[in-house]
Design a protein that fits this description.
The complex is a heterodimer of chains A (about 170) and B (about 300). Chain A is mainly α and about 170 residues long. Chain A has seven helices and no strands. Classes of the chains: A mainly alpha (about 170), B alpha+beta (about 300).
Amino acid sequence: MSIPWTWFFLILATYPWLFVADLLSSTLATSGLNYFITGATLIAPCRRLKRWQAVLFAGGVGFMFEAYRPIPDGTVAISLITLAIILGNYRTYLRTTLATMQAAVVVNALAAIIWFSAAAYTSAAQTDIYNCIYQAAIQATLSGIMGLIVIIPLSTTQNWVMDSIGVPSAHDLL
Amino acid sequence: MNNHQKGAKASYIALIAFILIWMSGGNTLHRFTKETFAEFQAPALQLVSKGSDLSRYWELKSRSNEELISASRDLARINAALELRLHSMDDIRRENARLRENARYTSNSEYLTVVARVISRDTSSWWQKILIRKGRNDGIRPGSPVIFSDKIIGRVSVVHLNVSEVDLITSPAFRCTAFLVGDDKRRIVYVKGDAANSLSPSRAKITAIPLDYNPPLGQPIKVMTTGLGGVFPSGLILGEVDGSIRMSNDDNYKVADLRPAKSLDMIEEVSVLVPQYPTASEILLAPSEKIKLEEFK
């Protein structure tokens, strides 16, 4: 039986991953690229948590990402909540490791595009649309690769926390 | 319709309701959420920065006595030279104060210096920021200039309790007026951050360079602050002109790229110049009863 605060413990367990990704992005400062893994953090919780818990988790992760970034308030958080709802509704498709990895790549790249577009919208920079698309494509590609790289260790950590708390496994929910 | 489908439908309705509440919640709700999540992360940021300081401390402690003796000898010499300079500054300051008194001109361009360590750099194509380990508790105010020695680093954009966000000189949000050293007529140009392309270094741009400006040959062209606008003190170095000065797209003026005076990717410590008196923008934005105009007199 899972407890109501599972989503919060999961945020605490996921935060070190997000934090390390931010610190690594700091070392990439000269390139203007970010190690974005926020989207990939949704996959494992959405397979096992109840819908409302997955939504709170996604909102928490989204608002944490936005806290120090100049993007319109709530953009990433609401996008992640939407993605969490969609993933929760189609959780039967996330049974295999391959499907989980595919979902991580797609969700992470999609969340990166949303964040990047929101940042471009807020920015005072003047640039043409083709350059904007080109920049977003580079960032989305990196984010997709990051999603693929981190999904196994990240979901292992998250699953371990959920096992410890007593959240039913993904197969039990099917 | 089974329970799963009902739940799916309910979740979409709840999402739409949340978006409506969020959009109608106004600035207070948005600011509260942002501050809460920023403060939630602040201890971790502080911990990492202090950990990095500690490792630097132990690295320095492992150095030999000979190294320390030679470093302190060098410092003593530099101190002596600086003391001499300080004495001459004292005379100038006294003279300046006397002239101001005679002219009945009171200056409000005085700053308190707060030294702060850099926690992390956060850059993308659309912003160039650093986080520093000083915030509202240390008296930092939004809009305060951030410098290293006499070089401009950027400007404080957002202040949290113990952490502040600084827009770097290369950030598209950064704007400042400047002089080009070597321009005898001291005409004002305009410096602004520019959107960096991914995988290429960040940069700033100088615009509104007069058409008849001829750069001095064979020497780097420094760009200095004017002091106009009341944000940055005058005479600080913004950087140097990078590459050639070229015509703007509309042929009305010249433009050039600016190379920041300090390497912004390596900087570990900065000084925040906090104005001693409320700035013009603070007076305009703050409720009138909070501003003591007597302070200006």
